[in-house]
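Worked Example 4.2. Read the sequence first, then its structure tokens.
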Amino acid sequence: MLKIYTDKKLHYYAAGAAAFLALHPGEANVVYVDLDPDVTIGGEGAFYSLNIDGNGGDDMAFTVYSATGYITYYSLPVSFTVKLAGLAPLGDNELLGNMTSSFGYTFVYAHKLEVGEGINSEDSFTGGYATLALNISVFGFPYAQQGAWAGAEMGYLGFRIADGENWHYGWMRLSVAEDASSLTIHDYAYDDAPDQAIFTGQEATEIFENPLTKTTVYSFGNTVFVALPEAFSGEAGLNIFDLAGHLVYSDKNIGQTMSVALDQIASGNYFVEISDNSFTYRKQVHLDN
């Protein structure tokens, strides 16, 4: 059965995906990561870095900046506030976008994509800091606003991760406050096979639905709970990693339902990974000890 998306803008997805994949053949394995809870940053100097491919090194950095100051206008003090939300790929990684100029200032413009758009080597990518939203207010009133992501809800960002001379293409779903005061990371996916195309919103390797996408994963205290969907009849493995990519638990063949108590690890966020031979599902959970 074809995977059905509820977004009405994706009525063309099935036919388009089949044609797109026919033009971009090859082995692929999409790794989908659901951040639970979502990561939201905001404040005067908020910073968050994300290790996308689990190799122990951070791949993307996110910032939200806010500052208040005064200027003098005809000898009168004028208060202003600047809020900025943005991100930057680290190392040799790149965003789907391009360099652009405005008022003599050159910056990275990161495209805000719709669900179902293909990301591959034919797209334009660039490194450098990308301003997603910029808001300037004077005396508490809006003065200027820039950035295609201001007020975006569940928008898709395209990226690619450098792997020697190869690339791993992926998408990330973000929301940005209208006034650029906060940024939320919801989930992301990438193809761990080099130089393979991926669609925004694609969670499984094929355009056909893998039953593991319906897996239930949650945590309570120091215990992780996993329930495989009834439709899944194969063998699935379980791995749990810390955010630095260190393996803290592994089981190569899990049952339909199971719980894992991890009382020897530190409290914090961890990635739970469920996989068969064609699909990997990851979810971030919080454990307390």
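Now turn to a second chain, presented in exactly the same format:
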Amino acid sequence: MAELYKIPLDCVLYDTMNFFTLFEATNESYLARTGHNKHGWYNLRRVGLALSVTKDVGLPLLHMLYHERQADAKLFPGSMTELVDRFLKLSRGSNRLTVVFDKGNNSKVNIQKAKEMNLRVVGSLVPSHYRDLTGVRLGLYDLEVNGKPVYHTVKEAYGLKLSVAVVYNASSYRRQKRSLLDKVRQFRDEVTACFESHESKPIGEIEQRLQDILHGNEHARYLKVQVTGRRYKTLSCSLDRKAYCDKLRTLGKTIIFTNDLDMPVEEMVNLYMSKNLVEEQFKQLNNPAFIAFRPIYHWTDTKLKVYALICVLALLVQIMNLRARMNGIVMSNAVLRVELGDILEVALIYSPSRVVKRITVLSNVQKQLFDVFNLQRYAPRKTELSLPLETMT
């Protein structure tokens, strides 16, 4: 496929996702394990899927199954070794590979290993860990990429000199600021409600109740909470402006890095932003109307691996999208499926001895798709593309 459709293999996008299974708790499995997950289904055993796809086309190049408790950063070296081996076989070693990944794979070991393997890597840094970069005034953002101001510098991290670009998105800043304020207010209301419901109890018990709420909540750092008084108790719950302002400096900012100091800033930013393509592939795997990777109705690790292979192979539908784009038809895979699904063959029964098969009336886009994919070879011999749908009742 890479040779037939001239698909470039010099840049791949890498990310991970987890999927829940219906494994029984008594079933032995190395891959399916319980653990923390963002969906809240802590009772279900889950498996992780690491996926690499080609840039622009989104063609799956590598996938690996791993157990849920394995950190992304520890999985990265092994998956990169396999990815490089596969890349060298496909490209015959003619190009240098660029790998784009998310911040969950960051570690000194991984970045150093990428250097040893002669890989160009593009990733992102956690803004809250680099206050010196997020604290730079917007007036010093002297570059612009895709309409967004960018600050570029060279910084030492993970034991290497890295080219770093801080991209500021004003609309993301406003959205994140509103979200932060709403969540802080909701948490403050929760603290106030807890105090009011226990106001008659001893002050020590009230403070313990409040500590139970504050402990482990990510928004507790933005509030100063204090209970005073003995007989008539008072709650002081105010905004910690220093912590709040420190957080505001990180909002709307994406810190992108690469180990290739000669890479242009615009290329580095665009490569990282193209990472959304692999996330689109995960959406297709999660789509119950398309691939529906979850829930997984299998009971052994070997069957899980075969099932994952089949689901990843289903992502080759990207080739259909590529063929459509090569003919000037630009649309998402979801729209492509809908348009193709509306091309129907019907049987008109005039009498027990006379049945005529025809194609329903096609839109202009459907006519183009009909020609691009040569659907005529599946159609009845005498096809009337102009037959109105109303005449078939």
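Notes for the reader: Residues 383-393 have pLDDT under 50 and may be disordered. DSSP finds twelve helices and 13 strands in the chain.
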